[in-house]
């Protein structure tokens, strides 16, 4: 599976993304990675959705330009819409994990006509109530960035490692860690701070796309309550919990996760895997 790299210009900077399955007839799928994750988190998902055009966005790419005007989920949502416009994509399916899930909610509630189906993974309408271990790691990153410190490898490894329940193979792990280390830590911190200020609960009712809410039972950041708020607030939503998976189940349980996503995008009912509503 070859992913083709593309970019779209933004004011002062640009957004990079990687495309597989271009030209396929199915509705395109936009994949939005978690913070401290990277677009490569979606490699297995893109392989499993090989009959669909997939667009894996690199949310770190704007950090290479002038990003300081308005960093955060709203600006990233605008960047994704700019990508859709550049690619001539009138309607897409969107899958977002953690901060990527926050961006997905902003898109789906702002331009609902452009989102056919939605998958929200390890995320919430707000970050309030995030589990303390993860919240404290985020605090340490933000404090270090404010003090002008460079991202250290231990800090990057700590943040990346919390996203799943077991460390991937060494080459994959190194890809994940290097994606964080190469990014301006001030940009990483600025987006996290902006995400913490958002509460999208009042906007959930604007989301018209049938929505699947996925949470790993071992998620160290988001609670079952975060998933419940999404499932209750979005008019056409249901939730499932993946036993044994962490914050980014597309890495922990790639086959099972991709099967859930594919079933939802096909408008069929997936095999029950946990609690739902």
UniProtKB/TrEMBL annotation:
**Alphabetic keyword roster:** Hydrolase
Q: Which organism is it from?
A: Streptomyces koyangensis
* Entry protein name: Alpha/beta fold hydrolase
What are the AB hydrolase-1 domain coordinates in residue numbering? Answer: 28-252
Molecular-function GO terms, alphabetical: hydrolase activity
């Amino acid at each position: 599976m070859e992913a083709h790299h593309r970019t779209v210009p933004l004011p002062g900077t640009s957004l990079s993304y990687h495309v597989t399955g271009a030209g396929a007839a199915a509705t395109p799928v936009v994949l939005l990675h978690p913070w401290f994750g990277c677009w490569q988190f979606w490699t297995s998902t893109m392989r499993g959705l090989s009959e669909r055009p997939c667009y894996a966005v690199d949310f770190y790419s704007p950090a290479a330009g002038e990003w300081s005007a308005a960093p955060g989920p709203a600006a990233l949502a605008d960047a994704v819409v700019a990508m859709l416009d550049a690619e001539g994509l009138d309607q897409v399916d969107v899958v977002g994990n953690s901060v990527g899930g926050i961006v997905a909610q902003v898109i789906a509630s702002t331009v609902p006509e452009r989102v056919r189906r939605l998958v929200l993974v390890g995320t919430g309408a707000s970050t309030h109530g995030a589990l303390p271990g993860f919240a404290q790691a985020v605090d340490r990153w933000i404090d270090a960035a404010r003090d002008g410190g460079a991202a250290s490898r231990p800090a990057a490894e700590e943040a990346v490692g919390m996203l799943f329940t077991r460390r991937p193979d060494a080459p994959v792990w190194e890809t994940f860690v290097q994606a964080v280390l190469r990014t301006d830590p001030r940009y990483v911190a600025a987006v996290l701070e902006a995400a913490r200020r958002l509460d999208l609960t009042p906007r959930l009712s604007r989301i018209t796309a049938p929505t699947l809410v996925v949470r790993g039972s071992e998620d160290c950041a988001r609670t079952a309550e975060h998933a419940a708020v999404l499932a209750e607030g979005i008019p056409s939503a249901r939730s499932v919990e993946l036993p044994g998976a962490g914050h980014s189940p597309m890495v922990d349980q790639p086959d099972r996760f991709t099967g859930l996503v594919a079933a939802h995008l096909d408008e069929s009912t997936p095999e029950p895997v946990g609690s739902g509503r």
